[in-house]
Amino acid sequence: MPKITFIEADGVEHIVAVAEGTTAMQAALHNAVPGIEGACGGQAACATCHVFVDPAWLSVTGPAESEIETGMLQLAEEVRPNSRLACQITLTADLDGLVLRMPESQF
Amino acid sequence: MDSPWFEGRDPGAIPLAEFDMASPALYPHQLHWPFFERLRAEDPVHYCEKSAVGPYWSVTKYKDILEVDSNHKAFTSVAATSLEQQNLIGVDENSVQAGGFIVTDPPLHDEQRKIFSPALAPGNLATFEALIRERARQTLTALPIGEEFDWVERVSIELTSMMLATMFGYPIEERSQLKYWSDVVAGTPGDGIVESWEQRDQELKNFAARFVALREERRHQEPQTDLISILVHSPLGSQMSDVEFVSNAILLLVGGNDTTRNTMSGGLLALHNDPEQWAKLKANPALVATMVPETIRYQTPVMYQGRIATQDYGLGGKTIRKGDKVAMWYISGNRDTDAIADPDRFIIDRPNPRQHLSFGFGVHRCLGNRLAEMQLRVLWEEIMARNWARIEVTKPVKYAYSSMFRAINKMTVRIHA
């Protein structure tokens, strides 16, 4: 079960362990991690699951690449090169230990 | 006018082929609910062959609406967001075009939206919050206690018109002119505001002239925080043609106008109709935070948005043909029991209150959604701070003659101290 650390904008950390195949968005919502909204339910249709991938992990997750994800990230605030939509990050064994930071607000 | 297709007939008995949800006559007395319920259950992707707006598909289930909304390649927004195309393109080639970036697809859409998005970002909105709160306080202070008055006029319109004037850097004492123009753009002949398409077009030309003049004023001034100044001082915006500028100005005007206004009114009506929710809110005013998105879901101020298929597309067991008009009925999807628990109830502390279609989804998701939520949140915070026993709606409410805007034009209330 890959472990993932979510860090809120004010520094509060949440560590959750989830089954492989779960998305980072689902991991947050199912574990009541604040700071992720996921209004569209994980379809890359709302940009309210915006996260910053820790620089040490960016080469493993990769940056946002698909047209849909990069298109929707334009609706988010303060988008950076390490911005991703959490619903588009699927947790696999090689992401065990992944660190994601949340923006100040999703909405 | 011909008798509407549903008049005097049992909704459970009318053949599906006769359903035409774009009939504005359905909405003043809110007769649409049983028809959308039947469509969701019996024909979720429904073809209306003949109507005042021509043939079109109605998509009524939450997940199907989400699918269409998210796929801008298969479903274009160009000349499509209103089934009544005259709303967008006017009466002839000299007409004022309405819609701005809402009627464009990526990549042009993204370029234009980006001009305005910084103005509506959380950081910028934070600078408005104090002003919004000050106005809410003043407006609420001026209200009579124990006497009937029209909440729509004295609160919903008052606050949203002031917000609009501020967003546009428009003289605040002339804000009723802004509201009038917004109502005309959104209107339909016969709704009590628009006399004819030609009259509407003339009013839009007046609007265009005023806004082009305002833009030129701003061009020669130092950059300010209003939308027009932001536009005219941005690299892309400064080169925008007059036609495109006006079209975008209209979009922002309508987008920010009756949507928020109607949700202010609708939220109050919902609380009046469910005393248990009001009691819950009084006992715990922090619930304003989850109540605000619920009022937006429950009101669904924009009832549908249209698209046109760019290719044949299979949905709900049907084949939508290339070129077909498609209506995404947010008003129906927001009541879909497959997506939302107990959707017909107004529940102020839902666990996922933002799971609703009222802002749309995909790249066109409402640009003003944060500003809308902020205005609503501040208003409700200030109302709760007054500690009134309750706000009673004293007369039945009528909705606008419109299949797109779920508008409450008058709401008589009495505040009980």
Topology (SSEs and partners):
The complex is a heterodimer of chains A (107) and B (417).
Chain A (H helix, E strand, L loop, with lengths): L2 E5 L5 E5 L6 H7 L19 E4 L4 H4 L5 H7 L9 E3 L12 E4 L6
Parallel strand pairs in A: 1-5
Antiparallel strand pairs in A: 1-2, 3-4, 3-5
Chain B lengths: L32 H10 L2 E4 L7 E4 L2 H9 L4 E2 L9 H4 L18 H9 L5 H20 L6 E3 H18 L6 H12 L10 H23 L7 H6 L2 H4 L3 H15 L1 H16 L1 H9 L4 H12 L4 E6 L3 E3 L2 E3 L4 E5 H4 L35 H18 L3 E4 L18 E5 L1
Summarize the structure.
With 107 residues, chain A is α+β, with helices and mostly antiparallel strands. Chain A has 3 helices and 5 strands, in the order ββαβααββ.
Description:
The complex is a heterodimer of chains A (about 110) and B (about 425). In chain A, a hairpin with a 5-residue loop joins strand 1 and strand 2. A five-stranded mixed sheet of chain A has the order 2-1-5-3-4. With about 110 residues, chain A is α+β, with helices and mostly antiparallel strands. Chain A has helices spanning about 25-30, 60, 65-75; strands spanning about 5, 15, 50-55, 85, 100. Chain A starts with a strand and ends in a 6-residue tail after the last strand. The model of chain A has no long low-confidence stretch (mean pLDDT about 95). Chain B has about 425 residues and is α+β, with helices and mostly antiparallel strands. Chain B has one domain: Cytochrome P450 (Cytochrome p450, Orthogonal Bundle). Chain B is about 45% helix and about 10% strand. Chain B is built from 16 helices and ten strands. Chain B has helices at about 35-40, 60-70, 85-90, 110-115, 120-140, 150-170, 175-185, 195-220, 225-230, 235-240, 240-255, 260-275, 275-285, 290-300, 330-335, 370-385, and strands at about 45-50, 55-60, 75, 150, 305-310, 315, 320, 325-330, 390-395, 410-415. In chain B, the strands form three sheets. In chain B, strands 1-2-8-5-3 form a five-stranded mixed sheet. Chain B has a three-stranded antiparallel sheet with strand order 4-10-9. Chain B has a two-stranded antiparallel sheet with strand order 6-7. In chain B, strand 1 and strand 2 (about 55-60) form a beta hairpin. In chain B, helix 5 (about 120-140) runs antiparallel to helix 6, helix 8 crosses helix 11 (about 240-255) and helix 12 (about 260-275) packs across helix 14. The N and C termini of chain B lie far apart (about 45 Å). The interface of A and B includes residues 40, 41, 71, 77 and 107 of A.
